[in-house]
Amino acid sequence: GEAAWAFWQGTLRTAVVARLNSLLRTEPGSTPRSLVVLVHGFNVPADTYEFQIEKARRAVLSNSVARAAMGDPPVFLQVAWDGMEGDGGIPRTAWGRAQYTAPVIGLELRRLLAAVDSAAPVRVIAHSLGALVVGNALWNASGVFGNLRDSVFRAYHARVSGIDSTGYHFPPHTNIRVGLIAPATSAKIFKKYATAPESSARIDRIVVGVNRHDRVTNKFFGAAGFGGATTLGANPKELCRAMFAYYPATLRGKARLVDMQVPAPNYHKEEHSWVSYSEKEAQKQFLYLLFAADSATPGDEVRRCPQVR
Fold first, then answer.
1. Residue 298: pLDDT band by 50, 70, 90 thresholds?
2. Whole-model pTM?
């Protein structure tokens, strides 16, 4: 039943947290190592998951800027979730269910991170719909659901907003950076970003990798705004609107935009997999902006987004 499920989930979470904390500090009182969290997207078969995650992990470890910024080798937390749950694993129908599965996974990830050593720098990298998992883990990402307020959503809104009585407190870390690669969601993931200042103030930087010709986020023929919007990963203007037009100014100075399409794009037919992005030349810039102490200045946001200020 539900009580047994909650018990075993709590038991597993406690074990994972204990393991992470033991790896982050090799000696009592020592400076903690960095925690790098990797979150895959929707529709990642089990037989390819390890390969994709390993590619992403190696991309970080082989990047000189990331290595220099972290110093000691980081501790990796790999988050595997079932984006194909339900409906017999049929992508056409499972995609709709994944819009609701991802926030649940994100909230449970929040509970785990909240118990991890708060002095550890945290770097989170998510691909595709993993962005919705991360948004729910680190801030109030409920803006993607509009005004849905039935009994299930009332419980969700209470948890995602970090109300104390729910047990879903925001992670207390003060050095958090987030990287979203081809995020399969919309700018509404930031709509309520500033409603929980205790979470948003702790996030130092958000890097978004965008590709106008990604065949999945563009839904093969430029329909990114339909059927579960994926415009944040497909249209550079989405992040600009989030910073300058739609929502509070808390994103300005934190958000960074990386164009990840190839120099000679194949119109709406570029590969979407995390492996393909890990091999792109633009991945170097993405990781530089995510890890470097000094990256692009906030003034660059104005240069990139002149049309929507």
1. low
2. 0.91
For residues 18 and 80, give the distance between their C-alpha atoms in angstroms, rounded to a whole number.
19
Token pair of 106 as six digits: 């994100």
For residues 62-99, b (16+ Cβ closer than 10 Å) or e, as one string?
Answer: ebebbeebbeeebbbbebebebbeeeeeeeeebbebbb
Could you give the strand order of the β-sheet that contains 122-127, starting from the edge strand earlier in sequence?
75-79, 35-39, 122-127, 176-181, 203-210, 255-259
> 213 pLDDT exceeds 80?
yes
Residues in CB range of 149: below 8 A, 6 or more apart? 157
Q: Give per-residue pLDDT as tens, 195-208.
A: 877 787 789 999 99
Helix axes of 130-138 and 91-114: crossing angle, nearest 10 degrees? 30
Tell me the CB-side half-sphere exposure of residue 102, using CA atoms within 13 A: 32
The CA distance from 15 to 13, in Å, is 5
The answer on pLDDT for 262 being more than 80 is no
